[in-house]
Amino acid sequence: MKILALDSSGLTASVAVLEEDKLTAEYSVNYKKTHSQTLIPMLDAVRSMTELDLATVDAVAVAAGPGSFTGLRIGSATAKGLGLALGCPIIPVPTVDALAYQMYGLHQVICPMMDARRSQIYSGLYEFVREGADSPIKYGLHILKEQCVVPVEEIAGCCNAYGREVIFLGDGVPVYAQALADLLEVPYSFAPAHRRLQSAAAVAVYGRVLYQQGVYESAAEHRPVYLRLSQAERERLEKESKDDT
User: Fold this and answer.
1) How many CB atoms lie within 10 A of CB 243?
2) What is the structure's pLDDT at 243?
3) What's the CA gap between 211 and 220, in Å, rounded?
4) With contact defined as beta carbons under 8 Å apart, do 204 and 59 qualify?
């Protein structure tokens, strides 16, 4: 099975190609340009460098959210366009789950943290558990707390309640590092730079797991997952509420 994966849900833009269990290519950029400037050129570069015939792609995996509203729209629109053109399904990979999958096999509780602004984070809690002998993978991702948008105090409280060592990753770590130091009562550490941010490779690999579990949809069905209203939607509702009064 050949999977083309995209992730533009956060600061990093990333494209990857996975063929069965072989990662053929990954191209990631975390710099000042917008995803609208980088994602398509990156995709074209990967296609060219690997001599990828897009017609041979079996599915497109995309970080489906939560994350940056603009970034999610760009990634989803690109995935939908590819899915429609190629006639292949979309694998909607939860962004926070994909981040956690980068810590494959670790014994700690895994806590991704994406800065959601307005004093909130996109987060969740995960662990890896050993699968049965007949499983194609050694460890499965077990969700302790589903991806959510919460204040850092809430996720720190959940970590304390589990009473286990925690490893944090994501662009929210440097923003809330001091808050974590003040709030946590359990041992903790931060993921190294090469595992800290979004990766299309993780989207591809975990997307393959999800596909085998029957998690996929048509390009027409695909919608990003925002978890909360955009600023424009909040302002519209506030205006309507004032107009009603």
Assistant:
1) 7
2) 60
3) 17
4) no
